[in-house]
Amino acid sequence: MADNVNSELLALNQRLLDSIARADWKTYQEFCDPTMTCFEPEAIGQLVEGLEFHHFYFHLGGATAPFHTTMASPHVRVMGDVAVVCYVRLNQSVSGGMPSTSAVGETRVWQKQDGVWKHVHFHRSVPTK
């Protein structure tokens, strides 16, 4: 049973990441609770609440060059109706004909609401060298 839930959460999380790469606001909103919170580099150390902050970036558009997102070393921990998904997010892209990969550490919290998993919080940080 746990393996099924873990697989479901990893698939949902990948679909969320794909919606971000494509700037697919409709899909992103479907996955996220409207009161979602986060800490991310773009927020410059501030706690962001709600979706409006993220909406700005979606309006900029998705990747124009080939772009691929991978969750490396994912770990899922389910605690009743809450789950934490941790991984290193690898973003592969091509710029000026040259491929490159960037990495960020992410922790995403999902909560089961009315039988549906909703993304309620995330923390994203750039690894230090």
Structural summary, described in words:
This protein has 129 residues and is of the alpha+beta class. It has one domain (2-125): Nuclear Transport Factor 2, Chain: A. The chain is 27% helix and 49% strand. The chain contains 3 helices and 6 strands, in the order ααββαββββ. Strands 2-1-6-5-4-3 form a 6-stranded mixed β-sheet. The longest helix has 20 residues, at 2-21.
Q: In the CATH scheme, what's the topology name?
A: Nuclear Transport Factor 2, Chain: A
CATH class group = Alpha Beta
Oligomer: single chain
Low-confidence spans: pLDDT under 50, at least 5 residues?
A: none
What is the annotated CATH architecture?
A: Roll
Mean pLDDT: 92
Summarize the topology.
Blueprint: H1 2-21, H2 25-31, E1 32-39, E2 48-49, H3 52-59, E3 67-79, E4 82-95, E5 98-113, E6 116-125
Parallel strand pairs: 1-6
Antiparallel strand pairs: 1-2, 3-4, 4-5, 5-6
Helix pairs in contact: 1-2
Task: Describe the structure using short key phrases.
129 residues, Nuclear Transport Factor 2, Chain: A, alpha+beta, six-stranded mixed sheet
Short description:
This protein has 129 residues and is α+β, with helices and mostly antiparallel strands. It is 27% helix and 49% strand. It has one domain (2-125): Nuclear Transport Factor 2, Chain: A (Roll).
